[in-house]
Amino acid sequence: MQESDSWSVFGQGAYQVTDAFKLTAGLRYTDDNRDFRGQRTLGAPLDVTKKVGDEQVSWDVSALYTLNSDWNLFARIAKGYRGPSIQGRIATSNVVTTANSETVMSYEAGFKARLWEGRARLNATAYYYEVTDPQFTAIGGEGNFNQLINADKGEGYGLELDGHVYLGGGFNLAGGFAWNHTEIKDSDLLVAFCGAACTVTDPIVNVGATRRANINGNPFPQAPEYTANITLGWEHTLANGAELFASTDWVLQKNFNLFLYESVEFKQDTSFEGGARVGWRAPELGLEAAVYVRNITDEANVIGAIDFNNLTAFVNEPRTFGIQLTKRF
């Protein structure tokens, strides 16, 4: 059983410095407390309790500058907070782990634009953040259990772009791209690696009779270095007010780790998936009928793995077809 209590007070205000320049600031106080008790009655008996808590002040300051009716520039500085955590999985372990609070300082700046007389928009953001005591979950390794750990620091920076354009003839195109660099910064942080045979590329450190991987400099797990998405849609209104529509969407991820440690087997290169949907709708009747297909190219993209006693991966859903009938009231 785990009980969590959290309360906070916060406020936000804005000041119009000039007609074109606006400042906004916010302040928040948060108090978190978590109590855990776990009992195991099957197998070796266990009765364990844990308690964690913290209080933090977080804040943000942002600025918006209007160049003209189509272009805005913005910037933001913020301090964020995530409360302490408890990992209470005791089915295969006698250890209940905890993680201290993490705090983050983040900085971002960018622009938002309307182009081609309102037919298109383009947004771009550059960002940097540093996390103090980032919380991570060390999954698997030598045993079938999860452990919470804190690193000393974590760093991330990157660039995000997204946009939309009306192409004419009922066609709309939307898409986005992001480059994201993340890095664990803790020269002494060691984790267990695959219990089965895998090719670990991190430095290996002997700790007594055990071997551990030093994960300093590794990217955050499940954090792709590159992501991209694109959607093409079409709509056509019939004489009776009903609509025909069709769309296709595609997403891509590239270069990401499945676990905290790096290995040849558990580092993913590129995964992508696409779908399509075609249908008819009658807005005045609240009716819609459509056919769809997901994972058009039947990709087998690895989305997770088991490493404590084998090299098993689990993948996304295979190609799927379907029919949808919808009535809105």
Q: Give the strand line-up of the largest sheet.
A: 1-2-3-4-7-8-11-12-16-17-18-19-22
Please count the beta strands (DSSP E, at least 2 residues each): 22
In the CATH hierarchy, the architecture of the largest domain is Beta Barrel
Can you summarize the main beta sheet? Answer: 13 strands, antiparallel
Shape: globular
Order of SSEs: EEEEEEEEEEEEEEEEEEEEEE
- Identify the CATH class of the largest domain: Mainly Beta
Task: Give the CATH topology of the largest domain.
Answer: Maltoporin, Chain A
Report how far the terminal alpha carbons are from each other. 41 Å
CATH H-tier superfamily of the largest domain: TonB-dependent receptor, beta-barrel domain
Computed structural class: mainly beta
Question: Can you describe this structure?
Answer:
With 329 residues, the chain is mostly beta strands. The chain has two domains: 1-106, no CATH class; 134-329, Beta Barrel (Maltoporin, Chain A), CATH 2.40.170. It contains no helices and 22 strands. The strands form five sheets. A 13-stranded antiparallel β-sheet has the order 1-2-3-4-7-8-11-12-16-17-18-19-22, with no helix packed on it. A three-stranded antiparallel β-sheet has the order 13-15-14, with no helix packed on it. Strand 14 (204-207) and strand 15 (210-214) form a beta hairpin. 15% of the residues are buried. The mean pLDDT is 93.
